[in-house]
Design a protein that fits this description.
The chain is α/β, with parallel strands linked by helices. It is built from six helices and six strands; from the N terminus they run αβαβαβαβαββα.
């Protein structure tokens, strides 16, 4: 038997060159600074968090500061021209976002009226998107505000991720230049929350690309 011929006939064909899968487009992350109080501590926290999120290639970050808006607490199906102007500055940014992070203090065991107004002026913009929370305050670290927000966003068909970032006695944790004095724990918490947001954000974005959300 001609074994040379047999080996040539049974030799497997060469494999096609494998190509690496394309990385998904970065998620559009809207970071909402919920306090508009004079003398607020919020910008210190938001600057810290945005710097962490902006370092990640899986997100592009848009900071929405509610101190820059004047949405009224009186809702209307026919808002006045000034209110429509305010909404025009914010609504499209919420609609374009794939995920949200809400930065909130705790006022009287809950969250600010400015944040509730922003939430209530919108509906579809929140649907089928993940939400993470960064809170700050005194001994509670703002966590009671976060628990209230979870209920509100559930009603709006948003998905809140489990892990949060909270700053207890926040003013003592940062130096005069806004740097966290002992950042390791907070950095780890932010990374964990952003990992969960990335997972949910990609999963929900992919799902909505093939089937409309039944909200």
């Amino acid at each position: 038997m001609d074994t040379t011929t047999l080996d040539a006939e049974t030799e497997a064909p060469p494999k096609a060159a494998e190509t690496a899968p394309e990385s998904p487009a970065p998620l559009r992350l809207a970071v909402i600074l919920g306090s508009n109080r004079h003398g607020r501590f919020g910008p210190v926290v938001s600057d810290w968090f945005v710097s962490r999120a902006a370092d990640r290639p899986d997100f592009t970050v848009d900071l929405i500061d509610l101190a820059d808006s004047e949405l009224p607490t009186a809702l209307s199906f026919k808002p006045s021209a000034p209110v429509r102007d305010q909404l025009a500055r914010i609504t499209h940014r919420l609609a374009e976002a794939d995920a949200f992070v809400v930065i909130t203090p705790e006022y009287n065991h809950s969250y600010p009226a400015s944040l509730k107004a922003l939430i209530d002026w919108h509906f579809r913009e929140w649907q089928a998107k993940p939400v993470g929370f960064v809170s700050y305050g005194g001994i509670s670290g703002g966590l009671r505000a976060v628990e209230h927000l979870r209920q509100v966003f559930a009603e709006l068909h948003a998905v809140s991720v489990r892990d949060t970032v909270s700053f207890h006695n926040a003013g003592a944790l940062f130096d005069d230049d806004g740097r966290h004095r002992e950042p390791a724990g907070a950095d780890a918490a932010a990374a964990s929350m952003l990992d969960q947001l990335a997972w949910w954000g990609l999963a929900l974005r992919d799902a909505k690309s093939t089937r409309s959300y039944a909200g």
